[in-house]
Please model this.
Amino acid sequence: MLATYGERTPDEVPETVDSLELAWLIHQVEQRYGRPFDADDDALARMTTVGAVVEVLGELGFGGPG
Model:
């Protein structure tokens, strides 16, 4: 999903996730899964790398087929 932000290839996506990418990604997740992204501030603060984003999304039940 992050590769489509800025029309990059997956190899061009850096490991760190900035605040604009995170806001865009959260919007995309809400659209794909048809439900709000409901995370507390601690979960959002953890979402600074691709790996951490995947972890938090999994914890919140976003990860299966959309």
About this structure: The two ends are 12 Å apart (CA to CA). The CA atoms of residues 1 and 25 lie 7 Å apart. The longest helix spans residues 19-33. The chain has a mean pLDDT of 93.
